[in-house]
Amino acid sequence: MTFSTLGLSETLLRTLDEIGYSTPTPIQIKAIPAVLSGRDIMAAAQTGTGKTASFALPLLQRLANGNSVKSNHIRALILTPTRELAVQVAESIATYGKHLSLKSSVVYGGVKINPQMMKLRSGIDVLVATPGRLLDLFSRNAVKFSQVEILALDEADRMLDMGFSDEIGKILALLPKKRQNLLFSATFSDDIRKLTTSLLKNPVKIEVSPRNSAARSVRQWVCEVDKSKKSALLSHLIRNRNWSQVLVFTRTKNGADQLIRHLKSENISAVAIHGDKSQGLRTRALADFKANKTRILVATDIAARGLDINELPHVINFDLPKVPGDYIHRIGRTGRAGLQGEGISLVSADEVKLLAAIETLIRQTLVREVETGFIPNHKVPLTRQTRVRPKKPKKSKQGQPRGENRKTASEQKQDSSKPRNAGKSKRTAGSREKRRR
Ligand code: AMP
Fold it and tell me: Which of 14, 59, 87, 283 has the maximum number of C-beta atoms within 10 A of its C-beta?
């Protein structure tokens, strides 16, 4: 399959050739013809699957064939949950549209509004925006929606998780009724389904990986550890395994700052991005990490949402996320564009409920390991997935267990006294056991 069979114009094919995209990804194969035909789409796809190009390329092609944009108006609106994702999508739009005479721009909060108002004055064909800032600009008459032909919601699930549902409702009410709608979401909760029912008309449904499953190219495992030892374990793993580029997730901003202090005290270069950091600091931190100037990037879920960092080999969950769907988003930062990655969760006993919820969501029991020197005093209890009801031994006629099940009392005692997780990175018995639901 090549891009030329999907109906893209010569100009876009030339651009793709220049940027080295030779083969369309599965979501591109399905979404590009659907969007070109003017249909609404509802796509379940994670970051890393090539979803941005799957809507950006046909969207640009449709706009390139249409009317010119009036001052302060826009023709396509792409909504994203975070500034970082907005910037990335806008960069992709600029790259894919470099040989087209379409104007694109990006607006998001946390920076001065005036330069954004100035840019909108001449009219913009494709505007990438975060919801709050867009409404702010609308209330100042800086942006008008009557020319909008296409709306794309990128990472719609995250927008709802982040509490943007009111803003989205307001924006939808301001847009012309006749338009094409494109909705992308990594997970499909009930709230997302409600939104799709009200928003999309007879959509083409696209699913490129099983719903609610984490990226398959990622080797995922759990490292059991006591809470107090997590920081030490992390620096030990980074050193011992010689990890060069690691994205670490913490649940809180405070947790991220504390971890940075620990890593720096261990002479490991690390920087944090979270909501309390200015946009300038976040952008620089990300650029340094991408350029391999910083070894470790510590991020909270919101700040890290949608980050596109190519060939990221390791993602660490320093804390498990409270919302199980965030696990999928976090792990989606690695194993991208067909590469293998590793997603490791440092799990302490108090997090077992969160672990169980994640395993239920991804329909998978995560392999458990322990690291020499970090064997936990407080074992992480088995989850429902790992727990296996002991088989009742079949009784022989004499009332004795048969075959392999037959053990002497002393053998049985020996078995139960075997240390669990002894040695380096041993898989626990529970992790090897078949899942029972
Ligand atoms: P996305 O899922 O949109 O975040 O894209 C993930 C990464 O894959 C980005 O770095 C894209 O530039 C890259 N990419 C998207 N489509 C292709 C393709 N057909 N061939 C090669 N790389 C691609």
Answer: 59
